[in-house]
Amino acid sequence: MGDRYAQVSYEALLQMRKQLKGIFGPCNERLMLKAMRLYGSFAMLNVRFSNEKILKLGMPKPPRFTDYIGRCVQSTRGLSIPQQMAVDFK
Description:
The protein is mostly helical. It is built from six helices and no strands. The chain starts with 9 loop residues before the first helix and ends in a 5-residue tail after the last helix.
């Protein structure tokens, strides 16, 4: 992880609210806090998805993330985080 990575509480994120535009670029601070709270709550569940059942049903094995990360970067180039979030938080 990067040198500046730190796990913080949601309360700490609330205190950083005015810094979010400097971190993420132009954004709706309330919406970014909502997204971080939702993601953080999900991450704290410590749940892992298993492909076992769908593989047994005949689905092909999914590609490794490193195989398609370039496409992720290419397809979002030039889009702000709020633009990328438009579908998730209407």
